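Changelog-adjacent note: as of this version, every example in the card shows the full chain rather than a window. The one below runs 263 residues end to end.
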Amino acid sequence: MDWGMENRMSQLIRPDGHCFFLPIDHGYFQGPTSSLEKPGKTIEPLLPFCDALFVTRGVLRSAVKPAGSKPIILRVSGGTSIVGKDLANEAITTSIEEIIRLNVSAVGVSIFVGSDYEHESLLNLADLVNHCEDYGIPVMAVTAVGKELEKRDAKYLGLCCRIAAELGARVVKTYWCEDFDQVTTGCPVPVVMAGGPKCETELEVFEFVHDGMQKGAIGVNLGRNVWQNPHPVAMAKALHSVIHENYTAREAFELFNNEKNDL
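Full-length structure tokens:
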């Protein structure tokens, strides 16, 4: 790994080998998202607890302060919306010149394995890697599922992650699932968790995050579980404790309850 690539990866992954990415890119296909109508205001109290932001260039420019910013993972795929025919029909939205100009630490692109647009999305990833490797910029592949939601199991996600790694992704973002170690074992690059089944309580979130960390994930890329929670700062602090301080799910839940009562 050359110096530039290693330097950027070290901005994203802390010395303990773990990371907490905070995504706020949802508006690129959802428009104004609940609790993210004013992203700058939403993220301000959460920044002390996350290691990087996953964001589009528009929100980066308009809502993220450049001075003292957290490392940026730039969302560079899109072109579809929730009112369109198929969310999987994405293209690359951002040039390599723009990526360099924004001085980001990494870029992120979705892949839709098993969808009608599998081929196009995988070539999006490959083309992006071709461009970004020349400049030492890591690419994070996002194993989106779209209409393939029912395939969110270890066999399917393991397939997605391995293909993403084979095409050159330096990091893979995927969903937590049962038998998550089957996903991480078959993926030769770091894996971060995007989420799991619908959680009814904060404890369930801490449980799947802790389970995934024990089974090979290096961290999380969680947004809505944080900033849509009624107590987002307490949630961020508790997740940070699981990721970087080796808290159990129960210990994190206790911390969450203590923090929400103090805030």
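Structural remarks: The two ends are 43 Å apart (CA to CA).
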